Amino acid sequence: MTYIPLSGLSLRDIEYVVAVDDLRNFSRAAERCGVSQGGLSEQVRKLEALLGVVLFERSRRHVAPTPDGARLIGMGREVLAAARAMIEAARVRTGPLEGLLRIGVIATLGPYYVPNLLPLLRRYYPQLQLRLTDSLTDIMLRMLRHDELDIVLAALPVSGEGFHSVPLFSEPFLAAFPAEHALAERKNLTMPDLKGPDLLLLEDGHCLRDQALALCGMSSSHEPERLAASLEMLWHMIGAGEGYSLIPRLALRNRGEWEGLITVQPIPAASRTIGLVWRASDPRGAAFADFATCLRNNTPEGCTPLSPFPAKTGPEQDMQ
């Protein structure tokens, strides 16, 4: 067996290879890594020469890992995760939650929660360098599992092993109707009242879609004629008179320009639980739990804090 000195193998080169695998594009991988495309390509070639394996099949329009490449890149991901865990384990002793914190937020929460979250974090965690990402729940959890995110703000419960989650607050749902809809002025609405052909939904993959169907007692196979790609488009479709839907409480802020087009009605006992999720193996678990306490103590107006733990001393309420 040929001896290969470890001095020829760098974590940075592994990061380059993982970036190419993630993005399937050398140019975008170089941009993500903050290097030139030529420099990244050269380092990948050097790594291939060192390992004696072609990692990627390349063409002008196609980049994909070879079978050997896929196996080795998977091992490379584990090496990077172990290296980051070593760094974070050292940080726990001297300064929890200092430096870079990669936060994922589900798409139906981020635009409405993050604007109030950022000033809070700047005040109580000024030492943090934040990197925010928003997407669908499954994508966020996959990124969390692969150590591409540190924590995720999501609707609970989440699926999958190896995660630890704690509830933060309960966010009510309200029913939003076109102003002229027959249900718009009905008093004492209940969830069964919304079970009808005019119910609008988000596209498949949004947890809000599944929650709406479950609350209305409808099959997950229900498909309206039109689906919304985002919560904002769903709101616009309601305003256009196409139907009605459930809207999270935080998404109703600053909607004054829609007065006369959309009527909002409360629905008793209709809500979702927003929580914080991290890898159960992350050595910063205790620091993340304290971070969750800070968020919970500053629950947004209109929502209800949820705590399964004894009360802890935390920052005073700021996010009203």
From TrEMBL:
Which Pfam families does the entry link to? HTH_1, LysR_substrate
InterPro entries associated with the record: LysR_HTH_N, LysR_subst-bd, WH-like_DNA-bd_sf, WH_DNA-bd_sf
Domain HTH lysR-type: where?
9-66
Keywords of the record, alphabetical order, are: Activator, DNA-binding, Transcription, Transcription regulation
Query: In which family does this protein belong, per the annotation?
Result: Belongs to the LysR transcriptional regulatory family.
Q: What is this protein called?
A: LysR family transcriptional regulator
Higher taxonomy: Bacteria, Pseudomonadati, Pseudomonadota, Alphaproteobacteria, Acetobacterales
